[in-house]
Design goal:
single chain, mainly beta, nine-stranded mixed β-sheet, four-stranded mixed β-sheet, about 10% helix
Length: about 425
């Protein structure tokens, strides 16, 4: 007999849902629903389970996920998420390129890009010290910008340089949270060769424990924020989320952009940024990151240095592993990338959770300490090589597990185990046919 959809049945269903969420089997009366709901654990929304292909919102929430087969069957990208105050600009991958990547490397992380709905760049700050209420705001502009300080005060700032920052001080009357918004019809570059971050104590060089740098907790890119310069967010320890529009750019010289953002757990990099720069994400709190297609590692020395929470990175273009790029990435378990060409000093040193690395057959050099203290590594895959690469020193490997294997082509095995420096590891070098 079919169940009748009565009010009583409806209330029973609600009670069952509350009991399931609350982890209880106690009877519930309709009169006590409000109290029971208020006592439920936080996070009522259902979390999307991580799969092969994940779609991230700006704050690191997975909004869609698919197995490889499910993703390759899609006919269009999933719907864009929405947020008050932001306008979606779509995903940082298109479907055709994403499918090609997933076909080749099986997995991918894709992120959503946003711009502010009014085109203004917004800096969210929390001033907590009553004795420190006068930050300097710095940016470069060729033209005039209108600054709303978020406390009822506005100011026009005029400059004729896109490379030299103008610093303007403002004093707030009390502690609290404020939103600084900047509007301009010209292009706004945030700071510059002076090496300053956005808000500073002195309006000049970086003060690493600067109260004002540490007061920024969110950043939203406007339509005229077009450049990520050297050090622009360095040591902004409290910042938790950032959005950048699809045309924001950097150059190979713009290193340390996000260095020291300890509370930043996720970031979407737009497709206009084609280089990971030196120390760009060094010492951040990143757990996940979505990088666009065709990002170069050529200038990425120390790019993820001491990112101790980072779990997974998806790279697309074949390239070498620069100095210390993943040094002390102790939580990194998945490195989804084409084979690496040449591995430089300390590239994977203390990447203690990584289990597998494949090298490209064009590799000619593995430098000092490249795989030191990779305590979980099970295989260095060199099976496609046509010649034996140079192992710079025997300190390339140490503290590896007892079942670690270096896998080489059968025809090169004898040459490999007798080669200079490699001979010290002959007991863990195996023919591809034996693995």
């Amino acid at each position: 007999m079919a169940r009748t959809n009565t009010l009583g049945n409806f209330l029973t269903d609600v009670a069952d849902a509350i009991r399931t969420k609350g982890g209880t089997s106690e009877p519930l009366q309709a009169s006590s629903f409000d109290t029971a709901i208020a006592n439920l654990p936080s996070g009522g929304a259902v979390e999307v389970e991580e799969k092969d292909v994940n779609f991230f919102d700006y704050d690191g929430t997975i909004v869609y996920s698919y197995t490889k087969a499910e993703f390759l069957a899609l006919e269009s990208m999933p719907e864009n998420p929405t947020h008050d105050g932001l306008t979606s600009q779509g995903w940082n991958w298109n479907l055709t390129e994403a499918k090609a990547h997933v076909t080749s490397l099986n997995k991918l992380d894709i992120g959503q890009i946003y711009i502010t709905d009014d085109g203004k760049t917004r800096i969210y700050i929390d001033l907590k010290d009553p004795n420190r209420l006068s930050p300097y705001l710095g940016f470069a502009i060729n033209g005039t910008a209108e600054v709303d300080w978020g406390d009822g005060n506005t100011q026009s700032i005029t400059s004729n340089s896109e490379t030299t920052a103008v610093f303007t001080q403002h004093t707030y009357s009390s502690v609290g949270k404020y939103v600084i918004s900047i509007a301009s019809s010209k292009q706004i570059f945030f700071p510059t060769s002076s090496g300053s971050s956005i808000l500073t104590l002195q309006g000049k060089s970086i003060v690493y424990e600067d109260t004002y740098e540490n007061s920024i907790y969110k950043f939203e890119s406007g339509s005229n924020f077009i450049r990520l310069n050297y050090n622009v967010f360095v040591r902004c320890r409290m910042i938790k989320s950032m959005t950048f529009h699809k045309n924001v750019a950097n150059t190979i010289n713009d290193g340390s952009i996000f260095q020291g953002c300890e509370n930043l757990r996720y970031i979407t990099i737009p497709p206009s940024m084609k280089n990971i720069t030196s120390a760009e994400f060094r010492e951040t709190g990143l757990i996940n990151i979505s990088l666009p297609n065709h990002v170069s590692l050529e200038y990425a020395m120390q790019a993820f240095y001491q990112c101790k929470r980072l779990r997974r990175v998806c790279l697309t273009d074949k390239g070498f592993a620069p100095n210390s790029i993943f040094y002390q990435c102790t939580a990194l378990t998945e490195l989804i990338a084409p084979p690496f060409v040449n591995v430089y000093n300390s590239a994977f040193r203390q990447a203690s959770s990584l289990s597998y690395i494949k090298l490209d057959p064009t590799t000619t050099l593995i430098q000092s300490q490249a795989f030191q203290m990779c305590c979980s590594i099970l295989m260095l895959d060199c099976r496609d090589f046509t010649s034996v690469p140079t192992l710079q020193q025997t300190n390339v490997f140490n503290n590896y597990p007892p079942d670690f294997k270096i896998v080489v082509p059968d025809v090169l095995y004898e040459e490999w185990i007798s080669a200079n420096a490699w001979s010290a590891f002959s007991s863990i070098i195996f023919k591809a046919s034996d693995v």
